[in-house]
């Protein structure tokens, strides 16, 4: 099959280009995009991309496949390209390209760090675990599973406009993960830090994030909850 | 210092940003030492993220009378009696505190009705020293416990301002004339720059090396970098013949299906739909030790009762548990099965096959993580400046067979232990003599050779050949003749691997260079595995030989220790002296 791959090496290339490579794949198998990329790299070892777990839990190989963000390791070629079509692989949009399919994720990580992604509870810890009811624990489902692949944030027009000021869907999903945790005692200060025109309110409910999340999570809903909490405290 | 190589300096450098590395880093960051974590992937991409079922620990939630000594008994028995009892005692008794700390840090464990941490049954678990029936001792966050733990540890490190060098690759140890480790040579992948990272303590936390096999549950990044570095520096590796084959890798894809599936009530069936583990392990059935279950599966296949057109796998049945239980307890497994096996476990069984999963061997250490070697008389000595934790280390708490749920516990207990030891040690440790120009040249030689390579074979072909040899010769069942042949094939491969061709010499995020360096680490691990496996003339734990079918306590109730300089395998005593409980004497191991 024909694969078209975004190529850019700052050492040698004045500008990026698309490289077309013919890759032989077994007729009876629906390979994952990552497998095809490995085959392409065997033909041209200068292609660079990130990958690790190859089962959709580490979040390394987020990329844009025929126009849609997703994880290469759990996206079958048939789904990405369709039968007989060319597979087109580009880096996640909106982030600086380091090389080929490798993007610079510093801004993305900075937004994650900004929301203080750790449990804050300054009460003395008990000798055993802090208790939490199954109902309270259930509130974290759909939130804690995020793998920081950046498929959502790099699919978000609001994030493209304001990557430095808008936290973006991934960061906000985690912001709500800690707001929703019955063990966390920093709700007020967390909300105070989000209470500006950009951090949360740049979300326009476009739901591009939901459309591409490879884990089936719903950042827009989490953002809605944060909005409600901010409005409820009446600032 | 080698010309043109920048140098940076820390109190401690931790190589690897997975569970054990980040737990050690957290301890040191909290105590204010200048600590760096060098990690070849962003920390939350480490392979700990793939751990599913949980962390085994006697926190007495499921059973208020649970006792860490019962957990210790299970672990000693599971190890087929070559786990070190002082280390197992330490792990099982310190475990609850280490798990509670993670919970306090925010780990989103699943919960019981009374709000405590949910625990599920796992293989090889018992109450009352094997006499009280199946225990449920594995603390779980659904079937994403490793993910939850890794993210929590990263978050804890962010809170404590740990310094991370993300996407930096450790190439080799730097060793001075006295044999002390004074740091590492590392490459910043984004720029290609080579840097000497100087440190009073170098902690290897590089994880496993399952990629020596063609079929593995392990991530692409599990290439045994720590063991490779240690062996090249002349330090020994222990119990390298002991590789765990997980009973339930998805047939064809190799991705892991947690033992928690069987803990929750799932079971294995052959082509006749028979629950065959009832024949092999009448008491524990599907929750026998992993080595026992994996061997039983292979026997079913060899005897013609395998499933599918080629009769080369068996199936894991879950549908009788009901959709609600599966959604609540095993959501990740549903996802993986649908993606990689094209099977919906709610309706039909998952095709599975034993798949390489875990390296029980590694760099020998004491409970503080200090690396151990032996002097000429065979007496243990400490390697100054070198530490190892997690899967790359061999403390040894897993011996010849690891119990499910004990790897996550190993990571946090010994990551924490090494951190605590270093807090004291760094206060009093004497300055080592700096490495000389020729010491650096030694450490740079591999990288220089690669960077100047003009001929040679490409990485992927050599890697496939290596993985083929290991898969065919050092799998679930082994025989002496085959292994001798395998060792000869590896000997022929060594020079070709050393001369691997690097076509792409560019600096910016050159993953080809990294893959070539990883290949050489895989080779060191594979060769030590092969040589140690051929020499151990018995069957014990995961090491099963057709030509030596029995356990031989008279000759082999010991660790194997492989010395790279002369490819010699020695014997090292197993510790049978726990501090607070009586020794668990070797006994017949049945489930």
Architecture overview:
The complex is a heterodimer of chains A (235) and B (591). Chain A has two domains: 102 residues, Beta-grasp domain (Ubiquitin-like (UB roll)); 129 residues, Alpha-helical ferredoxin (Fumarate Reductase Iron-sulfur Protein, Chain B, domain 2), CATH 1.10.1060. Chain A is of the alpha+beta class and 235 residues long. In chain A, a hairpin with a 2-residue loop joins β6 and β7. Chain A is elongated and about 60 Å long. In chain A, the strands form two sheets. In chain A, strands 2-1-5-3-4 form a five-stranded mixed β-sheet, covered by helices on one side. Chain A has a two-stranded antiparallel sheet with strand order 6-7. In chain A, 31% of the residues lie in helices and 12% in strands. The mean pLDDT of chain A is 96. With 591 residues, chain B is α/β, with parallel strands linked by helices. Chain B contains 16 helices and 22 strands. In chain B, strands 1, 2, 6, 7, 8, 9, 16 and 17 form an eight-stranded mixed β-sheet that branches. In chain B, β8 and β9 form a beta hairpin. The mean pLDDT of chain B is 97. Chains A and B meet through α4 of A and α3, α4 and α10 of B.
Q: Main sheet of chain A: which strands, in order across?
A: 2-1-5-3-4
Secondary-structure arrangement, i.e. CATH architecture of the largest domain in chain A: Orthogonal Bundle
Overall geometry of chain B: globular
Terminal CA distance of chain B reads 57 Å
CATH-defined topology of the largest domain in chain A: Fumarate Reductase Iron-sulfur Protein, Chain B, domain 2
Residue fraction in strands of chain A: 5-15%
Percent helix range of chain B: 25-40%
Rounded to an integer in angstroms, the radius of gyration calculated over CA atoms of chain B is 23 Å
The H/E string of chain A reads EEHEEHEEEHHHHHHH
Summing up helix and strand content along with how strands pair, one would put the structural category of chain A as: alpha+beta
Poorly predicted segments of chain A: none
* CATH level-1 class of the largest domain in chain A: Mainly Alpha
Portion of residues in beta strands of chain B equals 15-25%
Describe the biggest sheet of chain A? Answer: 5 strands, mixed
């Amino acid at each position: 099959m024909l694969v078209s791959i975004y190529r850019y090496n700052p050492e040698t290339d004045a500008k990026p280009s698309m490289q077309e490579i013919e890759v032989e794949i077994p007729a009876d198998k629906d390979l994952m995009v990552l497998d095809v990329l490995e085959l392409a790299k065997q033909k041209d070892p200068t292609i660079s991309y990130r990958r690790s777990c190859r089962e959709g839990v580490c979040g390394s190989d987020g990329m844009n496949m025929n126009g849609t963000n997703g994880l290469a390791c759990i996206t079958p070629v048939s789904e990405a390209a369709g039968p007989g079509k060319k597979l087109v692989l580009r880096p996640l949009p909106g982030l600086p390209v380091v090389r080929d399919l490798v993007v610079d994720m510093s801004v993305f990580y900075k937004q994650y760090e900004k929301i203080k992604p750790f449990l804050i509870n300054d009460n003395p810890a008990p000798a055993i675990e802090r208790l939490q009811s199954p109902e309270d624990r259930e509130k974290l489902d759909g939130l804690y599973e995020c793998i920081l692949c950046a498929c959502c944030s790099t699919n978000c027009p609001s994030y493209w406009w304001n990557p430095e000021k808008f936290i973006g869907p991934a960061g906000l999903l985690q912001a709500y993960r800690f707001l929703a945790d019955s063990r966390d005692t920093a709700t007020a200060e967390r909300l105070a830090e989000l209470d500006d025109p950009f951090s949360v309110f740049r979300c326009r409910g476009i739901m591009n994030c939901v459309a591409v999340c490879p884990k089936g999570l719903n950042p827009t809903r989490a953002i809605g909850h944060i909005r409600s909490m901010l409005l409820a405290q009446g600032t | 210092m080698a010309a043109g190589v920048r140098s940076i300096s820390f109190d401690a450098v931790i190589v690897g940003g997975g569970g054990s590395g980040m737990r050690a880093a957290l301890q040191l960051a909290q105590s204010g030492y200048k600590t760096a974590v060098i990690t070849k992937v962003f920390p939350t991409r480490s392979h700990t993220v793939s751990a599913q079922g949980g962390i085994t620990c006697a926190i007495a939630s499921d059973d208020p009378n649970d006792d860490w000594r019962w957990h210790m008994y299970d672990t000693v028995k599971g190890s087929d009696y070559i786990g070190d009892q002082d280390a197992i005692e330490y792990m099982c008794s310190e475990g609850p505190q280490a798990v509670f700390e993670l919970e306090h840090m925010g780990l989103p464990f699943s919960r019981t009705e009374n709000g405590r941490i949910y625990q599920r049954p796992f293989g090889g678990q018992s109450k009352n020293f094997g006499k009280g029936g199946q225990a449920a001792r594995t603390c779980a966050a659904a079937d994403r416990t490793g993910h939850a733990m890794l993210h929590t540890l990263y978050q804890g490190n962010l809170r404590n301002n740990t310094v991370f060098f993300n996407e930096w690759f450790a190439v080799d140890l730097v060793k001075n004339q006295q044999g002390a480790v004074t740091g590492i040579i590392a490459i910043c992948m984004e720029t290609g720059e080579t840097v000497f990272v100087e440190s009073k303590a170098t902690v290897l936390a590089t994880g496993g090396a399952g990629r020596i096999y063609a079929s593995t549950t392990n991530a692409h990044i599990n290439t045994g970098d720590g063991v490779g570095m240690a062996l090249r520096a002349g330090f020994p590796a222990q119990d390298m013949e002991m590789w765990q084959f997980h009973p339930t890798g998805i047939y064809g894809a190799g991705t892991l299906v947690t033992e928690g599936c069987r803990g929750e009530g799932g079971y294995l069936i052959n082509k006749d739909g028979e629950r065959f583990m009832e024949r092999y392990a009448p008491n524990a059935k599907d929750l026998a030790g992993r080595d026992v279950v994996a061997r039983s599966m292979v026997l079913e296949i060899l005897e013609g009762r395998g499933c599918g057109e080629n009769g080369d796998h068996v199936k894991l049945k879950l549908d009788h548990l009901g959709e609600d239980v599966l959604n609540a307890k095993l959501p990740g497994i549903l996802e993986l099965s649908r993606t990689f096996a094209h099977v919906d476990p709610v309706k039909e069984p998952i095709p599975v096959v034993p798949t390489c999963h875990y390296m029980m061997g590694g760099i020998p250490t004491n409970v503080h993580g200090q690396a151990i070697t032996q002097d000429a008389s065979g007496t243990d000595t400490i390697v100054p400046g070198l530490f190892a934790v997690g899967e790359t280390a061999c403390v040894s708490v897993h011996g010849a067979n690891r119990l499910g749920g004990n790897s996550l516990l190993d990571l946090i207990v010994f990551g924490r232990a090494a951190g605590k030891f270093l807090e004291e040690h760094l206060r009093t440790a004497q300055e080592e003599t700096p490495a000389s120009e020729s010491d650096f040249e030694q450490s740079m030689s591999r990288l220089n050779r690669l960077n100047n390579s003009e001929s040679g074979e490409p990485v992927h072909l050599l890697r496939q050949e290596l993985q083929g040899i290991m898969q065919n010769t050092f799998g679930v069942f082994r025989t002496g003749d085959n292994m001798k042949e395998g060792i000869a094939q590896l000997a022929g491969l060594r020079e070709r691997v050393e001369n691997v061709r690097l076509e792409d010499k560019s600096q910016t995020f050159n993953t080809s260079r990294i893959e070539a360096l990883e290949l050489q680490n895989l080779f060191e691990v594979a060769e030590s595995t092969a040589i140690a496996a051929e020499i151990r003339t018995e069957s014990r734990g995961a090491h099963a030989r057709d030509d030596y079918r029995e356990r031989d306590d008279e000759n082999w109730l010991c660790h194997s220790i492989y010395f790279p300089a002369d490819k010699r395998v020695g014997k090292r005593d197993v510790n049978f002296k726990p501090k607070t409980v009586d020794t668990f004497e070797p006994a017949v191991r049945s489930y």
